[in-house]
Amino acid sequence: MTLLAxxxxxxxxxxxxxxxxxxxxxxxxxxxxxxxxQCQSCHQIGPDATNRVGPHLNGVFGRTAGSVEGFRYSKAFxxxxxxxLEWHIDTLxxxxxxxxxxxxxTRMSYRGMADAQDRADLIxxxxxxxxxxxxxxxxxxxxxxxxxxxxxxxxEIQGDPAYGEYLASECQTCHRVDGQDSGIPxxxxxxxxxxxxxxxxYKTKAREHPVMNMMAGRLSNEEIAALAAYFAxxx
Length: 235
What we know:
Layout: H1 3-16, E1 23-25, H2 29-35, H3 75-82, H4 89-97, H5 99-102, H6 116-127, E2 143-145, H7 152-155, H8 161-167, H9 192-203, H10 210-216, H11 221-233
Helix pairs in contact: 1-10, 2-6, 4-6, 8-11, 9-10, 9-11
């Protein structure tokens, strides 16, 4: 493999890491705005938001817990952040359902939101105040994966992790294998099917992105499967 081809793989996987596949919206943001009134006694969100009893919630997607500058967090939140808790669709959903189960010892008095649809709608509203992945492929996904039309035979290809490791060796000069993503997206532990589906969406131009369309188009089905198998093995 040429140096250019190997460098291209870095670009492919870097852009892939944080982009959602064919997807449905999280929830109803308009309804979520009404639900946010439950939070307004402690939190603000929007152009003029500031820290109050709780930190402001602008840019919460992809943010490490306990990291808003100028806000004094509880020890519980400081510990959670130091252990790697980040706010994404899944972690926000779990936290809103039961805050004390996700951050034991938090001073937050909110008991939680029991209804799953309410949580989805609230998260959809909050998502409007973080970077939009419609135009920024590296931003945190704003949607959940749904069905796809990829040939099942492609998903059945058994990737060779060892070959995937060879193909991805240049990626690891930038992407840390311990899962940290300080400025560079983490690419480890992706489910293999999700990885393959996303790559083929670029390969077939079902998802438009000039660089990704070009780079993914150079990879064979077997190479994509190998990369998926390798990154799925990393913890």
